[in-house]
Design brief:
Radius of gyration: 19 Å
Shape: globular
Helix content: over 70%
Structural class: mainly alpha
Strand content: under 5%
Number of helices: 14
Oligomer: single chain
Distance between the termini: 28 Å
Number of strands: 0
Number of domains: 1
């Protein structure tokens, strides 16, 4: 555990040692506000809730999270520092988990900085704060899913741009898998059981359940299982490419 914490601290320090972290946070906060108040019609809704804030998170994460994850391993490979990292007295699993936790914490910090939204909605009315807490939890878990997928893909290439584009493509499939346009495409030639399986992989479906204030253990298990599965593939990828 101490080793993982050391790696996490090293990575977190690396984020804030460059302007990239601050640029990301500013972009995330500005876009969150624009989507909430303008595209989401926050005031026009006439309801004291943050539905218009959280409903855009899957699409914000789809493009912003890959910008974080693309550098996790691709940069190490490009700079040749991955060989140095792997010669240290740490396991591949510890390195993967440490890097992931650091990226997840950075995302959590960005998400926490949206607290003025919460204060605003409480000032304007009497929202269901339990639902808002569940929504924040769901948003953080969903961000973890995007990050885990991005980290795995980043370990497969030295090129950060390739990692960025491929991560968006893969995460897009997970995001829209439960949408009617996708399900209608499969419904004409696939059995209902397979259709339900495809829908169950949707980030939006699992996230929406949590934003409704219902903390269903199945949604939590989905995101945690996805994170663990992607990180396991991440470890396998790193181990298979040692010395390459």
């Amino acid at each position: 555990m101490n080793t993982i914490l050391s790696i996490t601290k090293r990575e977190i320090s690396g984020y804030f040692a460059t302007p990239v972290a601050y640029v990301f946070i500013v972009i995330f906060l500005i876009m969150s506000g624009l989507f909430t108040f303008y595209m989401g019609g926050f005031y026009e809704r006439g309801q004291a809730d943050l539905t218009s804030f959280f409903e855009w998170h899957p699409w914000l994460y789809l493009f912003l999270i890959p910008a974080i994850s693309m550098r996790l391993w691709a940069e190490e490979r490009r700079n040749g520092t991955i060989e140095l990292l792997m010669t240290l007295p740490i396991s591949t699993s510890q390195a993967v988990i440490g890097k992931f936790i650091a990226a997840w914490l950075f995302t959590a910090i960005s998400l926490m900085l949206t607290f003025p939204m919460w204060l605003t909605v409480n000032y304007l009315g009497e929202p269901d704060n339990g639902t808002i807490i569940a929504s924040y939890l769901g948003s953080l878990l969903m961000a973890g899913g995007y990050l885990a997928i991005g980290s795995c893909i980043s370990s497969l290439t030295k090129n950060q741009v390739i990692a960025f584009v491929v991560t968006i493509a893969v995460c897009f499939l997970f995001t829209v898998s439960g949408m009617p346009i996708v399900l209608n495409f499969f419904s004409s030639w696939t059995p209902q059981a397979l259709l339900d399986t495809i829908a169950s992989f949707s980030f939006i479906s699992n996230f929406t359940d949590l934003t409704q204030g219902v903390i269903d253990i199945r949604n939590i298990i989905y995101f945690i299982s996805l994170i663990m599965g992607a990180l396991t593939l991440n470890v396998i990828s790193i181990n298979s490419k040692k010395g390459i």
